[in-house]
Amino acid sequence: MKDRALVQIALYAAIFAVLGLMPKFDLPIAGGVPITAQSMGAMLAGVMLGAKRGALSILLVLFVVALGAPILAGGRGGLGVFFTPSAGFIFGWVAAAFVAGALMSLLRAHAVFASALIASVVGGIVVLYAFGIAGMALKTDLSLVDAAKACLIFIPGDTLKAVLTALVAQTVARGMPEALLSRAR
Amino acid sequence: MISLYLGERTWAHAVPAGWKLLALALVSLLVTPFDSLPLMGGLLAAVLALYVSLGRAALRQVVLLRPMIPLLVLLVGLHWWTGSLAAGIAMALRLLAMILLANAVTMTTRMDDMMDAVEPILRPLALFGLSPRAVALMVAMMLRFVPLLFALWEALNESWRARTGRRGGWRLLAPFCIQTLRLSHHTAEALAARGGAPKGPRR
């Protein structure tokens, strides 16, 4: 693996951690639903790095979490998080980044904003929730439908995160196009 | 950065990391098929007894579970609604016990011991051209990037405030990304100038 890819995988893993440690974004959402910026980290890693490197970057995050670093939102970390009801989401981030990255290179002929938005929504919401809901049903003995009900409150926040991710991708594509590795030849 | 690791040594610190991980995996496999209420209550009591044996600092970490309470209440409620309350409570007890048990391993194992313990698992990665030493380098780089990124965000926020008098918030995301990418290019160049990432199979 090239040095640059190695560094970028570490960088997006760090961005993921920073998003979790940040108090919160001032996002205009009503209801006071706890919104962590972290699933945006998975979207960003996929959209910016591409499928393989994006997934590796999230795997690196999970590895460091398992080693004991409290870098998930709210200072969570350690082996305990893999036993929580939301463990499905944690593993889902890897798939989310992979799918988002794959879609990003699949849609390379189209505008950056639109394709990044599609990639983030499909990867960071559809795929992520499939894993998250399945994981929750498994961990809590609830039926899939009931588990889905428990997860739905997060969807509005995640939609907003997909838009933000697309905005960032577009800005980077304008200001530093070579950094959009998911579209590099 | 705050750490979940307990500074003062306890008896569990002396147990090799590999054994603790193995024990955790075994317990998690063993308790999954059961959902009897007394059994799960007993499991949670046993784990809490383990925490008591580890001392006061360990018991204080139980507080870390507080953010999970709303979710657990919701899940138990869903169980109650769709079937049996007892099954819901057993599920919640099992989750709490396993989270605490896994956290106990994290509390009593140093990060580099944990890394050494999982190194054999990483060895197959060599098939994909990734040596365990490169993984260690990436972990180190990632942990070093975190405070650096915070400093960068603060600098951007300050300059935004100097210009507008308000907090930057999400508006800083795009310049932040460009700056961090530039930072990563410099790091990659510096790494290449020093001979590149390690390629050998072992430390």
TrEMBL record, chain A:
InterPro entries: BioY (IPR003784)
Principal subcellular localization: membrane
Location within or outside the cell: Cell membrane
Coiled-coil regions listed in the entry: none
UniProt entry tagged with the keyword Ubl conjugation: no
Keyword Cell membrane set for record: yes
Membrane topology: Multi-pass membrane protein
Keywords, alphabetical: Cell membrane, Membrane, Transmembrane, Transmembrane helix, Transport
Residue ranges of the TM segments: 5-23, 29-49, 56-73, 79-104, 111-134
Similarity section: Belongs to the BioY family.
PANTHER family: BIOTIN TRANSPORTER BIOY (PTHR34295), BIOTIN TRANSPORTER BIOY-RELATED (PTHR34295:SF4)
Protein name (Swiss-Prot/TrEMBL): Biotin transporter
From TrEMBL, chain B:
Spans traversing the lipid bilayer: 12-31, 37-59, 71-102
Compartment list: Membrane
Primary location recorded for the protein, binned into one broad class: membrane
InterPro entries per UniProt: ABC/ECF_trnsptr_transmembrane
Membrane topology: Multi-pass membrane protein
Keywords tagged on the record: Membrane, Transmembrane, Transmembrane helix
Pfam families noted in UniProt: CbiQ
Residues making up the signal peptide according to the UniProt record: none
Superkingdom of origin organism: Bacteria
Sequence similarity: Belongs to the CbiQ family.
Name of the featured protein: Energy-coupling factor transporter transmembrane component T family protein
